[in-house]
Design a protein that fits this description.
Blueprint: H1 2-7, E1 10-12, E2 18-20, H2 31-42, H3 46-58, E3 61-63, H4 64-71, H5 75-89, E4 93-101, E5 104-111, H6 114-122, H7 126-144, H8 151-160, H9 164-180, H10 184-198, H11 208-225, H12 231-247, H13 253-266, H14 270-284, H15 291-306, H16 310-326, H17 340-354, H18 358-375, H19 378-394, H20 398-415, H21 418-434, H22 438-454, H23 461-474, H24 478-495
Antiparallel strand pairs: 1-2, 3-5, 4-5
Helix pairs in contact: 2-6, 3-6, 4-5, 4-7, 7-8, 8-9, 9-10, 9-11, 10-11, 11-12, 12-13, 13-14, 13-15, 14-15, 15-16, 15-17, 16-17, 17-18, 17-19, 18-19, 19-20, 19-21, 20-21, 21-22, 21-23, 22-23, 23-24
Length: about 500
């Protein structure tokens, strides 16, 4: 034990239990440790050893009623043997808790040391393990039903039983459940594992709907964990798009369109974004569901806005808002990012400001704020606040820009939206510069632009560089300002980003 602890293989948790810190190699386990464990297990009769072997299959924590079910033994007898012999007499396990599930009592026990569990598990051959994992998985499914919280455990047992189709189904549920809880890293792991198991099936074609569901789930999880502009995100969405095309699937297609369009948009690839959104809108027009049509108008309007085609952008954004206010189920549209009403209003406010319709722009800005707060959707709030902060800087209203930027930073800090936070930090740096913190304001703007580039983002970069040009110029760093101006102009020409060609005042 001391040797394993010193090697870092095991350590005690907060409750005093010894836990494995990595995969223990039983071929290299110190002979005296294995000998001690073997001696203690060897004191048990055959029935108790079998009972503990099933417990080891379930995990370091196990359920008496499940053991009784798998072994076809009366529950009271199992509990007596666990509590009286294995706990109090042999001190191999300990009582953990008693739970209740749909009127069923569940008596939870735990191995006093994970090494006991691993030793018992390692003594089972591959065939025994497979059959026992199947039995435990079926018992868990019977006890817990279709509760998504147990899907990950069921997936593990069915995978180790070699029942890959069942495992894939539960991994899909586990990934979607983790995503609902905003545990996107965990969700991505479940979706990836499900896709990996799919590759092992002899007839993948039969699992095409499940594969698409897993791939779309992975796309959405990566969008959050890796960022809008990560190459991994584009690859995932391209794979999802190919699956949609192969299956003739339309239900998932528009979610995939949104992901790909977002990637192009944040990368500053506005011409590609426009082409994709036109394709999206054309297909959405053939559907009964108006949500894809509404969000397609929004996507095309945004692409046209950034390409500098303001009149056309206005038309599509107004169409988006018309559908939002009259027909479409806006709650469904949240799967496409921000609330489409709030997003459409703030983007239309931008468009009208650039068209010099300033009073109308401010009216749509106020409506965007109202809808964002009514939606009570943090991502929407961050989206609107950042756009509003930029709008107020266009209007040279630093006080209003400060209020919106501070709000955006607070929402991003609480909920973790790295893209919006980076933009807000750039705005904050410029506002701090304007307030007199010259050096620190410039330093913050420079760092925000570095972070922005590291994330692969090019959207708004010419405009953000323009803010830094202004700061350099006012701070008499004229050579730096001129070099940065050329960089901004080159990037704007490369990406055809033209909306920002306005005087900030």
């Amino acid at each position: 034990m001391r040797d394993l602890h010193e090697q870092g293989a095991i350590q005690q948790d907060a409750a005093g239990y010894w836990c494995e810190m990595g995969v223990i190699d039983w071929q290299r386990l110190p002979a005296r440790v294995e000998g001690v464990i073997e001696k203690r297990i060897g004191r048990l009769d055959a029935d108790l050893q079998t009972l503990l072997a099933v417990a080891a299959i379930e995990g370091s924590t196990f359920t008496a009623e499940l053991l009784a079910h798998v072994q076809s033994i009366h529950e009271r007898l199992v509990i007596q043997r666990l509590s009286r012999e294995l706990d109090r007499q042999h001190r191999l396990i300990t009582v953990q808790a008693i739970e209740s599930l749909n009127g069923q009592r569940l008596s939870r026990y735990r191995f006093r040391h994970q090494l006991f569990q691993y030793y018992l598990y390692s003594r089972l051959d591959a065939v025994e393990r497979a059959y026992l994992h199947e039995a435990v998985g079926l018992a868990l499914a019977q006890f817990y039903g279709e509760q998504p919280a147990t899907a990950a455990a069921l997936a593990r047992h069915f995978e180790l039983a070699g029942l890959y189709v069942r495992a894939i189904g539960h991994l899909t549920i586990a990934g979607e459940y983790a995503a609902q809880l905003s545990a996107y890293t965990e969700a991505a792991a479940h979706f990836r594992r499900g896709l990996a198991l799919l590759q092992m099936l002899p007839d993948r074609a039969a699992q095409q709907p499940t594969e698409l569901r897993l791939q779309v789930g992975l796309c959405n999880a990566l969008l959050v964990t890796k960022g809008y502009a990560a190459p991994e995100v584009e690859t995932a969405y391209q794979q999802a798009y190919a699956l949609c095309q192969a299956a003739g699937e339309t239900d998932a297609l528009f979610s995939v369109y949104y992901g790909l369009w977002t990637f192009f948009h944040v990368r500053g690839q506005h011409a590609r974004g426009r082409a994709l959104s036109e394709q999206w809108l054309a297909q959405a027009g053939t559907q009964d569901d108006l949500v894809p049509l509404m969000t397609g108008h929004r996507a095309l309007g945004v692409s046209l806005l950034h390409l500098g085609q303001l009149a056309a952008a206005r038309h599509h954004l107004e169409q988006c808002l018309h559908l939002y206010h009259t027909n479409a189920d806006a709650t469904l549209a949240l799967r496409y990012g921000a609330d489409p009403g709030a997003a459409g209003e703030i983007l239309l406010a931008w468009t009208l400001w650039l068209l010099r319709e300033r009073a109308a722009a401010m009216q749509h800005y106020q409506e965007a704020l109202r809808l964002a707060h009514a939606a009570a959707h943090p991502f929407t709030m961050a989206f609107v606040a950042v756009h509003a902060g930029m709008l107020h800087l266009m209007a040279n209203d630093t006080a209003a820009a400060r209020a919106e930027t501070d709000y955006a930073l607070s929402v991003c800090h609480e909920h973790g939206y790295p893209f919006w936070q980076t933009v807000a930090l750039g705005l904050d740096g410029f506002l701090r510069f304007r307030a007199g913190a010259k050096e620190s304001g410039i330093a913050q703007m420079e760092q925000a632009l570095v972070t922005y580039a590291d994330r692969g983002a090019a959207l708004w970069r010419p405009w953000l560089l323009g803010l830094l040009v202004r700061a350099y110029t006012e701070h008499e760093r004229l050579e730096d300002a001129e070099a940065l101006r050329r960089q901004a102009d080159d990037l704007a020409a490369q990406n055809e980003e033209r909306w920002h060609i306005v005087d900030l005042g």
